[in-house]
Structures are given as C-alpha cells and as structure tokens.
Amino acid sequence: MPRSLGGSERCIRDSPTAGAIIGGSGKFRYQYMPDLLQPPVGAVMQNCHGWSVDEHENILLTYQNDGQTDPHCIIRWNPDGTNGTFVEDSTQLCAGTPHGLRITTEAGGKQFLYHANNAQKLAKTTLDGEIIWIREGNFGQNDTCLPDSCPQQSCSCTDGKLPYIPTWFATPPNSDYSYLCDGYGSDHVYAFESSTGKYMNRSWGGRSPAGLHPGPLAQSQPHGLFMENHGCTYDPRPTTRPNTIVVSDRRNMRFEFFEYNPDVPDKFEWHKTVDMSPALGNGTLPCNMRMTHGSKYDPSKEGRSIVPDLNGPVAVLDNQHNVISVVNVSVLLAADEQMHPHDAIFLANGDMVVGTWAPGRVSYWKLLPEEDSELN
Questions:
Q1: Cα distance between residue 298 and residue 219, in whole Å
Q2: Hey, which residues does 256 pair with through a beta bridge?
Q3: Which of 75, 18, 37 is nearest to 354 (CA)?
C-alpha cells in the first residue's frame, strides 16, 4: 500500500501520534485528523462534491443534501478545519444535485462562487450565497442529438435532445468568460459571460467514439472529445502554457490541456494530454486536477497538483505531472466508508482536504514534517 503525501515547507508540525492513520510517501506523507472538518449539526451529506477556499483561507464545501431534513448545500470551515457552519444558501440553489464549486476574484477584488448543479442548474453567488444569476434548463445551446452524440450506446437522447448534466465551471481570472463542462451529459464545453451568465454560443467537444467503457482504446481517443469531462480547472502555473484550462476526461483516464483566449470566447485549442493510467492503473477515474494551495497559486510549492481518483486514491503530482505520492483514502478510511474521492485540494499550510461520493464524507490530512518522513 502506498504511504502518504506532503509538502515539507512547514518546519514546525506535530509528530505523528501512536496509532495515527498516515498515508503517502517520501516528503509527502499526511496524517488523518478525524476531529477536523466536523459538519454543523443538521448537515446530511449524501455526496460531498466540490471544494473551494476563499481569500481568508476559509474552506468551503458544496454537497448534496438528503432532500428532506437538510435544506443546505454549502458549509464553511475556518482555515484550520474547525467551526463548520452553513452558508446562507437557498432552496433554489440547493435543490437537485449541487456538484461543481469554483471561487473567483473579480473586478474590485470581490469574490464569487460559481455552481454547477447536475439538475441542469447553473448559478453565480456571493460567498454568502446571495444569487447573482441562475440559469435553469436549456440555456440556448444546440441540443440536437446527432448520430455520433452517444457512441457505443453511452447515453440516450430523449425526444431527440442531447443529455445535459453539468458538472463544473472553469473561471479564468484574466477573462470575462467562464467555461462549463457538461461532464455527465453531452461532454461538451460551453462558454458563458461570467457577469451575466449569458451563453456565448460557443461550444467544443462531445463524446469520444469508444464510449462509456473505452478500456485499452482510451489512450487512442481523439483529443478534444471526452467521456465524462468531469472537471474544468484554470491552470495558473508557469510550467504550463499561458491561458490554459485543464479538463478531466475521466473515463478516458486522462487530463486534456486547452488554450483559451482571455479576450474573446472563440478559442478552446488542445495542446497537451496527461495519461494517468500508467501511474494510477487501468481503470483510474481522475476527477479533477487542482494546482493552488489555499486561495492562490503559491510558487514555493513548485507547481504541485492534487488529483482525486474516484476509485479510492488521492495522488500528488509534480509540475511535470509525475505522481510523487499517493494517499489510499479508500483503504485507510474504509471503516468510515470513505470510498470514492470526488474532489481534493491543498490548503495554504500544505495540508489537504478530501471529499467523497457515495457516501458523502470529508477528511482533513495534515502534512507531516520532512524530518519525520526521513525517520520512517
């Protein structure tokens, strides 16, 4: 079993305690902290889907509630993982399946959240949950189902219309436009005006020809076509091309890198692919790639990224996309049914947090100091 990850930038940390749950390897070993990320009373987390961190380093989670006793869908914790409280969200925002969460600093330094809800709902809100705009149902996209829209019977087109089940926004900070991945639906990427939620009549992608279970054909699927383009993330690192959005092509076990034009929403051009199957195994399901540490990109972290795999592990990658440590969450936390990591992020202090799907669980992992790593 691989043992866990870390970032040795913090010099004063507690040593592991007897009986601690530790995962990862080398400099990147983490200790599970079960007392942190406690949800507020009344939270019923069916699925824990997406993380964000605000400018004050508070930790935010969007989750799917039970649709009965819990009307909420966003929890905020202090930077150290304590004091979980509900954000003042709304039934309009939380009904359905809240999925992707993205935070962006816009004109005047104000921050906003972008929400992608599987129930065909897109929204922009303040950090306190006030709705700026919301789009429900078809937003003007061409939803005509074509002969190659559902290859290998990978989906169905009701009444001749493409499936639409949005999963995540990418919100580049240097652009007035945002990009939506329709990861459980058509596998298109759609461009929107961020300030208004207006669809810009630009789309790319669609489903790759091998369909839902590509197997050994995954590596040969055409670039820019996807099978579950689950996550969309702006990549701020100087080690990649400027103006890049990374798309998680989950069933094809890869990440695809695209260049956009920050001035106009007319470009979404492939330039690189990272295949995760050699490092994480055939059948890996990489949900997301996150490159920030806390609220921003930190050059001292050397461009590392974190990748949650729905099958169980969470991987740390260097800036050349080599896996340098793996925390086997589904093995280490099997007793708590933390089986399917759906999103994971680094915090500013080098720690990481993980949210799981089916069932919804959260976990806080403290980065161990390098000197402890060297002793083991």
A1: 32
A2: 247, 273
A3: 37
Looking at the DSSP bridge assignments, the partners of residue 113 are 103, 125
Span 202-219, pLDDT tens digits: 999 999 999 999 999 999
Tokens describing residue 277: 């199957």
Coil/strand/helix, residue 260: strand
Task: List the beta strands (DSSP E) in 110-206.
Answer: 111-117, 121-126, 131-136, 168-170, 177-181, 188-193, 199-205
Structure tokens at 218: 């995954």
What are 60-91's pLDDT values in tens digits? Answer: 999 999 999 999 999 999 999 999 999 988 89
What are the CA-CA distances from residue 300 to residues 107, 191, 321 (Å)?
Answer: 27, 32, 17
- Per the CB < 8 A criterion, the answer to whether 190 and 199 are in contact is yes
DSSP 131-143: EEEEEES--S---
Q: Are 10 and 349 in contact (CB under 8 A)?
A: yes
Task: Tell me if the pTM is above 0.90.
Answer: yes
